[in-house]
Inverse folding.
């Protein structure tokens, strides 16, 4: 019986040491990642994913869209990664054929003039430091290629 007790005690000590070592490794990784963490959001914008009323507002609508997206991403990250400090940065890239999107939005009656889509993109890009609405030009799957 003494031999079983000694084995169990040794096993428990080894498990405790291993757990302590793993906790220390986790603490070290968190210190490396958290201060400079980035959340990257990549969006295929060719389907105009924003509400029509925001696009109609042009530049002001782009700023509103960026603000709402930033808040939604922050809320989501805080929910799924509560241990991550609030020091992370959100980087957002929307890739789209801006000229084609503007023409399609005008033809569909979403905007009264195609330039409102360009104004929207400019407002989105200018509202947050790490937010960009990027024109990929015309061509099949150009936005998709940037994301993949």
């Amino acid at each position: 019986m003494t031999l079983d007790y000694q084995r169990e005690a040794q096993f428990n000590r080894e498990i405790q040491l291993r757990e302590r070592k793993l906790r220390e490794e986790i603490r070290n990784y968190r210190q490396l990642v958290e201060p400079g963490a980035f959340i990257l959001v990549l969006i295929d914008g060719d389907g105009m994913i924003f509400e029509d009323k925001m696009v109609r507002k042009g530049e002001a609508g782009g700023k509103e869209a960026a603000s709402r997206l930033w808040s939604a991403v922050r809320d989501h990250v805080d929910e799924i990664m509560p241990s991550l400090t609030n020091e992370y940065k959100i980087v957002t890239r929307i890739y789209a054929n801006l000229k084609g999107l503007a023409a399609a939005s005008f033809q569909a009656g979403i905007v009264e003039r195609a330039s409102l889509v360009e104004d929207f993109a400019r407002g989105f890009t200018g509202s947050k430091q790490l937010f960009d609405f990027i024109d990929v030009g015309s061509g099949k799957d150009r936005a998709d290629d940037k994301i993949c």
Notes: The longest helix spans residues 2-33. DSSP finds six helices and three strands in the chain. Strands lie at 38-44, 89-96, 131-135. Residues 45 and 96 are 5 Å apart (CA to CA).
